[in-house]
Design brief:
Layout (H helix, E strand, L loop, with lengths): L2 E7 L5 H10 L4 E5 L2 E7 L5 H11 L3 E6 L1 H9 L5 E3 L3 E4 L11 E4 L12 H10 L8 E5 L5 H8 L4 E6 L2 H13 L5 E5 L9 E7 L2 H6 L1 H6 L1 E13 L3 H9 L3 E9 L2 E8 L2
Parallel strand pairs: 6-7, 8-9, 8-11, 9-10, 11-12
Antiparallel strand pairs: 1-3, 1-4, 2-3, 5-6, 12-14, 13-14
Length: 271
């Protein structure tokens, strides 16, 4: 499988707006550089016509190249630095030194999938998870990527975790990262939607607005009464629309975290 890396100038648009637009086009990985964004997409998913129209509309400049599978780790390793979320969790690669003075440490290797905790949406999801009791809970991580949030769920005491994604590399990578972190309770499954017909105590969906909207009824149905739903991959301008949908189905809004233009939402489902 090949990925396309496109570096796009941010001279006429904010980084957060650019990432949001590109996410809707199927780009699934981003790196913020000086005055530009490096965006990554599977070659088979790239709509060159739609991308060209977007670039012309905003008068942006871009360059692109193909990343072969064997080159991906080198690209990633050259840029990835360990992160910590307060004293709660540290995320690093296996070539980094152990992270001390955190409750939980997670080791992530990418294999052409994304979700290392660096993006604001993933970071805020972990912040919200720090305030939730996972002990003995059944958890779903919809759009798992590297498996980071699924792994953290098990470390927080989840009895079972279903980690799903629609991308073969994500499935392989989440499985590998679960093994690296000695996880025993995570099932990794390839899906096209969240129509699981199973109810979970905690549902995590850090994807994007369109996928959340397309799967909103599944997210509602598959969250247990008194269960928790965490949503991210959303912009601040999406908040009211998302809240209105879930409030109509007996969800209470507990909290929203904000970072730059991104948000993460905590909802509780009432009986």
């Amino acid at each position: 499988m090949q990925y396309i890396q496109i570096n796009i100038s941010t001279n006429n648009i904010s980084s957060d707006e650019l990432i949001a637009y590109l996410s809707d086009m199927g780009f699934d990985g981003f790196e913020e550089l000086e005055n530009e964004i490096a965006a990554f997409i599977q070659k088979d998913n790239f709509n060159e016509s739609a991308f060209s129209t977007f670039i012309q509309q905003y008068q942006l400049s871009s360059t692109q190249n193909i990343i072969e599978e064997q080159n991906w780790n080198a690209v990633w390793e050259s840029n990835f630095q360990p992160i910590t979320v307060d004293d709660f969790v540290g995320v690093r690669a296996n070539f980094h030194e152990p992270i001390l003075n955190v409750e939980h440490e997670i080791v992530i290797t990418p294999k052409m999938s994304f979700g290392t905790g660096h993006h604001a949406t993933t970071y805020m999801m972990m912040q919200l998870m720090n305030n939730i009791d996972f002990s003995g809970k059944a958890v779903a991580d919809f759009g798992t990527g590297t498996g980071l949030l699924a792994i953290l769920s098990e470390k927080l005491g989840a009895a079972s975790v279903l980690a799903t994604d629609n991308d073969d590399w994500c499935i392989e990578n989440a499985t590998e990262n679960g093994t690296i972190n000695a996880c025993k309770n995570i099932q990794v499954k390839k899906v096209t939607d969240f129509n699981e017909r199973i109810k979970f105590d905690v549902v995590l969906a850090n994807i994007n607005k369109n996928i959340i909207l397309d799967n909103s009824l599944y997210l509602i149905e598959n969250t247990k009464n008194n269960g928790i739903l965490l949503l991210s991959g959303l912009l601040q301008e999406d908040e009211n629309e998302i809240l209105n949908i879930f409030k109509q189905h007996n969800f209470n809004h507990i909290k929203t975290l904000y970072s730059k233009q991104w948000i993460a939402i905590w909802l509780n489902k009432q009986q």
